[in-house]
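Consider the tokenized backbone below.
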């Protein structure tokens, strides 16, 4: 075999896992997962900024994301409550359809409000979108993890991130384009269709093959077990508290920075078309490249080294926005900062989500992943909503992004220490093959 043939075969072997049925399903449900985030994230930030709402109020709207961080409180319902009539389609499929309709209704409701007329009602509607989106995420994450086989967790995480980015960026770009021509109400209504890919995928693929019933819920005792069981199982693992601490702190700087980018772009004088071209356009392709590279590095070097590298890159990416803030209105500077940040986020999304997915016990997938994913950004979101606007006004954008770079260090150091102490291997659940002692994802 020649070197060119070997290289071609290696490339084909790298691409083939992304075309498996389970990976494609992860891609399509990821599309629907991404769009509600855009509706109350960058898109709503732009809408409020263009309506003349002050910065402190705009950044306070990121508290709507805190609903995502509380989703573990009701995730057990998705695990344990069988819906009447439609429940015959299966636990995951039936909840996918109901949650999808819920999020479409919430987005349309947000489309009908006027922030300038009633900012309090606008905030309430944004929170409703957060509740709907969080519930949709609970179902989507459980469906993805239970559909994927242990060896597919890395690839499936990558495909899910592909889908999430397309859903988020696609909805964000569509909203900007429609808003410039027909207003924000029409823009939000048009974006509601992004809930359909997950709903149609669930109907097409059916109930996940790895879905397990934890128990039969017949009384109050069994109901309590369905609520407490997922948490008790997780915290009985070796080093569980340190794993939870890592989940809480690893993304503080990244979350704090990401939810303020549109404020920076608006203050630097970038137009909607420029934001769509550079933030959405360049960022989209950089993110896709980062995901593919993440999948390849994950397969070659394993989870521990991949996650450590991703944490370093995501921390450095915040520094690029400090440089952009100093450069001013620069299309080249914006493209470079957005490109690096999205490539790092794509890479990190694959390996970090793969690790978090592998942590789950298949009896409690929805509840445990809701706890993990909620904890992953709660600190950053809370700090963003309560202090980010004031910090930017006091420190300036450049110093603010330098601070977020420094905030990435605790997560990097903690994960390195956990790897050396063997806690990464010990934390793997049945979703990652942990019950069989075959948690190869953590090597």
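A designed sequence for it:
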């Amino acid at each position: 075999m020649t070197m060119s043939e070997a290289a071609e075969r290696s490339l084909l072997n790298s691409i083939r896992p992304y075309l498996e049925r389970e990976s494609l399903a992860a891609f399509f449900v990821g599309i629907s997962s991404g769009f509600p985030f855009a509706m109350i994230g960058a898109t709503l930030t732009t809408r409020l900024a263009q309506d003349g709402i002050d910065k402190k109020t705009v950044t306070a709207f990121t508290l709507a994301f805190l609903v995502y961080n509380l989703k573990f409180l009701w995730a057990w319902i998705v695990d344990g409550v069988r819906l009447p009539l439609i429940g015959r389609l299966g636990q995951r499929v039936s909840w996918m359809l109901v949650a999808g309709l819920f999020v479409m209704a919430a987005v349309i409701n947000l489309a009908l409000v006027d922030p300038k007329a009633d900012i309090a009602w606008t905030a309430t509607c944004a929170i409703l979108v957060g509740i709907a989106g969080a519930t949709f995420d609970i179902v989507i994450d459980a469906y993805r993890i239970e559909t994927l086989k242990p060896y597919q967790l890395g690839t499936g995480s990558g495909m899910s991130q592909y889908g999430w980015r397309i859903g988020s960026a696609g909805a964000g770009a569509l909203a900007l384009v429609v808003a410039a021509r027909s207003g924000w109400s029409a823009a939000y209504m048009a974006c509601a269709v992004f809930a359909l890919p997950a709903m149609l995928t669930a109907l097409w693929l059916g109930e996940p093959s790895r879905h397990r019933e934890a128990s039969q819920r017949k009384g109050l005792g069994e109901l309590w077990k369905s609520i407490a069981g997922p948490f008790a199982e997780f915290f009985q693992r070796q080093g569980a508290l340190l794993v939870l601490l890592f989940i809480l702190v690893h993304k503080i700087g990244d979350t704090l920075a990401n939810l303020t980018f549109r404020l920076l772009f608006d203050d630097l004088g970038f137009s909607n078309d420029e934001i769509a071209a550079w933030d959405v356009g360049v960022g989209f392709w950089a993110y896709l490249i980062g995901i593919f590279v993440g999948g390849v590095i994950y397969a070659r070097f394993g989870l521990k080294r991949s996650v450590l590298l991703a944490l370093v890159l995501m921390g450095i990416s915040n520094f690029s926005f400090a440089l952009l803030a100093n450069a001013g209105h620069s299309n080249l500077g914006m493209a470079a900062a957005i490109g690096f940040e999205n490539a790092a986020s794509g890479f990190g999304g694959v390996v970090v989500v793969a690790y978090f997915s592998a942590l789950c016990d298949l009896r409690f997938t929805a509840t445990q992943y809701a706890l993990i994913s909620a904890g992953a950004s709660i600190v950053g979101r809370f700090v963003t909503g309560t202090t980010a606007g004031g910090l930017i006004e006091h420190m300036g954008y450049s110093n603010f992004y330098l601070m977020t770079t420094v905030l990435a260090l605790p997560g990097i150091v903690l994960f390195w220490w956990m790897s050396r102490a063997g806690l990464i291997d010990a934390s793997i659940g049945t979703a990652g093959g942990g019950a069989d002692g075959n948690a190869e994802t953590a090597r």
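Residues 435-442 have pLDDT under 50 and may be disordered.
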